[in-house]
């Protein structure tokens, strides 16, 4: 189903304490060796988490391991998979400069827990993900569209949305 | 009067020692004033706005043509210079700005995006601002060089010089009126039927709506 | 509290009359709930067509007299669907679109997408291409900071600096045009290298420009840095402390102005930045004045890097030797059979990079810019998520504007130095 292999062993670049903490939360680590790419070009360690422990993992990373910079937050759409969306987030420790890529899977229409209590930058980032994919975020203070008009119909970055949009007058 | 083009139908009588006086039609005087003090409203939407700033700066120096007074209030502006990519979300704002401008007013679509959507043929992008407002000049380029912008502004001056709106307005007994542009854009990007003024109401040359708009049908782009 | 007539006639009067719904003010699409009595407050709509918003940012301000009570930034007026375009067109064909992201530093954006695509394909650009990328990235940083400084000072009321910086920018535009053929829609990089080689004369001229640049920066500093009006307008305005800056995910000069010495060029070196000697300026107070000083110092440091990169410029090819991913040189396409086939295959979408995901960031003038790319094979990425530093940096407005005077908002906007093309994607 997935084109990336997963393993229970953390990549050697991840610090032992971080690897232990995430593995204790049920994380599985991405193994790019299965995809045939040279590992030095896939240098960012990535872990797949359970949705229920999504916020917990970030809280642990932030409070105990110093990952205080939420660099990026988005989602990936796989129309053929059963949990349709993968939510991804990139966090960095601003002191040691370790970078982690964390992922979780969300079904269509299902809410994903919001990271806004931990990172204030998650506010707009989650609004953007909502705007583009239609993934609601549970606990977000103001979940409205950010790029498209409020009454816009459709989720542009889903794979079934046409690139030119659906404009009646151009038909 | 130094400007040779404006003095085409101006009779100068400066031979008198009592000081010179001029004979001209009111319209050519008005046009001469108008063309040398075009105040642009630079609607700098994206990259083209930066080239417009370069045009206004010292190397290209737009103020040589009386156009350096960029006004960000539409009520003080004569020229709407749409520089950049127009999205449907922004189109409402642009039509509102256009509606607030007083006649006579001119519109320049600067760059490929404003003229035709350019390289962005995607869901939020308007494929040319002429879907919403009438355009006098299109400047090609992505973005156009400042030279091209200057050339367009000189062409605009020539156009203003030929303008007969003042004469026509006097004949008609009232000033030209605008009845507003297109305003309604729904979230799906659908446009309501345009509410433009009738062609006869629009005296300004070039501000005439396109053929499809005059009849009240939405402008359908042929692809 | 005296109950009004409507409450008296109510058949089942409640002990305390239900508090009326808070008054709302309709400001276009954003509905603001005004806390308590609306009183003297009013709602001011700033933008999207406003000279100091540098594009199409809209801020709905709730003001009490001259004082801002609440600020709600509204973005998206320039959303062009860049990510969707990238996912449809593919790595090679997306490069020209990156020019239009941060249109003040297009060369830097070109380098970002090229680096991300190279990581996906698992190739590396040759040393000369990397050195050229360093040169153009730093020139782009200078160009962007010059415009940022010029527009900032013009908004605050110092028009002269704008004219000075734009004169230097015209010189830079001439360099860009000579190298790439366009003033700022450059499309200079390719996956695996750069499009054109720089000749020795161009490098010598750029070097001479960069040697003269610090002196010009000193001139501008004389106009501004100890200028009493400039200091009064900027000192203590828009203070972002260290914790707030990190929590909002700020990057670039905005984060460094707040005292965090975070710079991707130092912390995650790319393009061989580790070989160059440069300093990362860091502010102390995190106000607009600090951000201005950080930017000026970055201009000087960038000039330093360019000089070093030109002096150390290695010789060799400018494109990686990986015909399955890298477009061949045009002259060889027109003469060689094999190159013609590769070009045809790459352009028609016969490109098959390994599957997987890549996080690739570089230090743009505005902050950390880069991509999360998910590849499922094929010429186009399955997901191309762009990190836009302006988008992230703008969020902090709602934190630092309230409590300030209305005229300070212009200084704050100028000191954040955002660009909407990148913010809205």
Number of strands of chain B: 6
Total tally of structural domains of chain B: 2
Q: Strand count, sense and closure of the main sheet of chain A?
A: 6 strands, mixed
Which of globular, elongated, flat, extended, rod-shaped describes the shape of chain A? globular
Oligomer: heterotrimer
Second-tier CATH architecture of chain A? 2-Layer Sandwich
Mean pLDDT of chain A: 82
State Rg of chain B: 19 Å
Uncertain stretches of 5 or more adjacent residues of chain B: 1-14, 173-223
What's the number of structural domains of chain A? 1
Any idea what the radius of gyration of chain A is?
17 Å
Span between termini of chain B: 50 Å
Poorly predicted spans of chain A: none
The CATH homologous superfamily of chain A is named NADH:ubiquinone oxidoreductase Nqo5 subunit
Looking at the structure, the CATH topology of the largest domain in chain B is: Rossmann fold
Number of strands of chain A: 8
The greatest interface here is: A-C, 44 and 46 residues
**Widest sheet: strand ordering of chain A:** 1-2-3-6-5-4
Order of helices and strands of chain A: EHEEHEEEEHE
Largest sheet of chain B: 4 strands, parallel
Summarize the structure.
The complex is a heterotrimer of chains A (171), B (223) and C (425). Chain A is α/β, with parallel strands linked by helices and 171 residues long.
Topology:
The complex is a heterotrimer of chains A (171), B (223) and C (425).
Chain A (H helix, E strand, L loop, with lengths): L4 E3 L8 H9 L3 E4 L14 E4 L4 H12 L3 E9 L7 E8 L6 E8 L5 E2 L8 H12 L3 E2 L33
Parallel strand pairs in A: 3-6, 7-8
Antiparallel strand pairs in A: 1-2, 2-3, 4-5, 5-6
Helix pairs in contact in A: 1-2
Chain B lengths: L10 E3 L7 E3 L2 H10 L4 E5 L2 H10 L22 E5 L4 H13 L5 E5 H6 L20 E3 L6 H17 L2 H8 L38 H4 L9
Parallel strand pairs in B: 3-4, 4-5, 5-6
Antiparallel strand pairs in B: 1-2
Helix pairs in contact in B: 1-5, 2-5
Chain C lengths: L4 H4 L15 E4 L2 E4 L7 E6 L11 E7 L2 E8 L7 H8 L1 H8 L7 H16 L5 H30 L2 H22 L8 E2 L2 E2 L5 H25 L3 H7 L7 H6 L5 H5 L6 H4 L20 H24 L18 H4 L3 H11 L8 E9 L2 E9 L7 E5 L1 H6 L2 H4 L5 H11 L3 H5 L1
Antiparallel strand pairs in C: 1-2, 3-4, 4-5, 6-7, 8-9, 9-10
Helix pairs in contact in C: 2-3, 3-4, 4-5, 5-6, 5-12, 5-17, 6-7, 7-12, 12-17
């Amino acid at each position: 189903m997935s084109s990336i292999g997963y393993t229970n062993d953390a990549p050697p670049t991840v610090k032992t304490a971080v690897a232990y903490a995430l593995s204790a939360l049920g994380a599985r680590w991405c193994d790019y060796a299965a995809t045939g790419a040279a590992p030095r070009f896939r240098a960012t360690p990535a872990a797949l988490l359970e949705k229920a422990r999504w916020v917990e993992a970030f809280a642990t990373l932030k409070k105990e391991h110093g990952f205080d910079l939420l660099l990026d937050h988005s989602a990936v759409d796989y129309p053929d998979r059963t949990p349709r969306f993968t939510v991804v987030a990139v966090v960095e420790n601003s002191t040691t400069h370790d970078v982690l890529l964390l992922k979780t899977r969300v079904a269509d229409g299902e809410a994903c827990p919001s990271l806004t209590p931990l990172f204030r930058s998650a506010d707009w980032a989650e609004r953007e993900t909502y705007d583009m994919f239609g993934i609601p975020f549970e606990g977000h203070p103001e979940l409205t569209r950010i790029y498209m008009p409020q009454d816009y119909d459709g989720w542009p970055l889903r794979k079934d949305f046409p690139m030119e949009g659906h404009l009646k007058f151009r038909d | 009067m130094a400007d040779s083009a404006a003095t085409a139908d101006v009779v100068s009588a400066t031979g008198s020692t009592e000081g010179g006086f001029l004979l001209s039609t009111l319209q050519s005087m008005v046009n001469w004033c108008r063309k040398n003090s075009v105040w642009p409203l630079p609607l700098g939407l994206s990259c083209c706005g930066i080239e417009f700033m370069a045009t206004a700066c010292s190397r290209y120096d737009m103020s040589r043509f009386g156009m350096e007074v960029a006004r960000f209030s539409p009520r003080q502006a004569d020229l709407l210079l749409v520089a950049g990519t127009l999205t449907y979300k922004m189109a409402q704002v642009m039509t509102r700005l256009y509606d607030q401008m007083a006649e006579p007013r001119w519109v320049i679509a600067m760059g490929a995006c404003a003229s035709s959507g350019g390289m962005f043929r995607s869901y939020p992008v308007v494929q040319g601002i002429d879907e919403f407002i009438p355009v006098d000049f299109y400047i090609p380029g992505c973005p156009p060089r400042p030279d091209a912008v200057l050339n367009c502004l000189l062409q605009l001056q020539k156009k203003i010089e030929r303008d007969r709106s003042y004469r026509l307005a006097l004949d008609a007994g009232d000033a030209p009126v605008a009845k507003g542009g297109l305003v309604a854009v729904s979230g799906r990007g659908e446009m309501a039927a345009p509410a433009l003024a009738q062609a006869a109401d629009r005296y300004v040359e070039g501000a005439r709506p396109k053929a499809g708009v005059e009849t009240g049908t939405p402008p359908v782009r042929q692809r | 509290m005296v109950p009004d007539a409507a409450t008296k006639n109510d058949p089942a009067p409640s002990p305390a009359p239900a508090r009326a719904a808070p008054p709302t003010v309709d400001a276009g699409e954003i509905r603001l709930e005004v806390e308590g009595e609306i009183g003297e407050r009013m709602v001011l709509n700033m933008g999207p067509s406003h000279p100091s918003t540098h594009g199409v940012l809209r801020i709905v301000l709730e003001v009490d007299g001259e004082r801002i009570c609440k600020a709600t930034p509204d973005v998206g007026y320039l959303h062009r669907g860049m990510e969707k375009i990238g996912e449809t067109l593919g790595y090679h064909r997306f490069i020209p679109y990156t020019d239009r992201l941060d249109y003040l530093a297009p060369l830097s954006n070109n380098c970002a997408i090229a680096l991300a695509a190279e990581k996906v394909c698992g190739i590396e650009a040759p040393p000369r291409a990397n050195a050229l990328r360093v040169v153009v990235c730093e020139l782009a940083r200078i160009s962007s900071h010059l415009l940022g400084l010029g527009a900032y000072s013009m908004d605050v009321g110092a028009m002269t600096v704008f004219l000075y910086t734009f004169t230097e920018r015209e010189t830079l535009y001439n360099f860009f045009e000579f190298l790439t053929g366009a003033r700022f829609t450059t499309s200079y990089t390719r996956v695996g290298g750069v499009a054109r080689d720089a000749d020795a004369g161009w490098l010598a001229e750029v070097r001479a420009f960069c040697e003269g640049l610090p002196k010009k920066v000193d001139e501008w500093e004389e106009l501004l840095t100890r200028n009493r009006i400039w200091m009064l307008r900027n000192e203590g305005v828009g203070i972002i402390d260290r914790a707030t800056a990190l929590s909002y995910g700020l990057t670039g000069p905005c984060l460094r102005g707040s005292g965090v010495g975070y710079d991707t060029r130092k912390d995650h070196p790319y393009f061989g930045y580790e070989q160059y000697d440069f300093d990362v300026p860091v502010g102390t107070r995190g106000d607009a004045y600090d951000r201005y000083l950080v930017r000026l110092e970055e201009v000087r440091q960038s000039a330093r890097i360019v000089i070093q990169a030109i002096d150390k410029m290695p010789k060799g090819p400018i494109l990686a030797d990986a015909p399955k991913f890298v477009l061949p040189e045009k002259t060889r396409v027109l003469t060689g059979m094999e190159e013609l086939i590769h070009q045809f295959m790459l352009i028609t979408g016969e490109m098959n990079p390994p599957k997987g995901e890549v996080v690739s960031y570089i230090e743009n003038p505005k902050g950390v810019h880069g991509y999360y790319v998910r590849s499922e094979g094929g010429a186009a990425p399955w997901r191309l998520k762009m990190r836009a530093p302006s988008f992230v940096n703008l969020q902090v407005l709602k934190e630092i504007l309230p409590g300030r005077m209305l005229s300070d908002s212009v200084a704050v906007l100028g000191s954040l130095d955002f660009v909407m093309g990148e913010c809205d994607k």
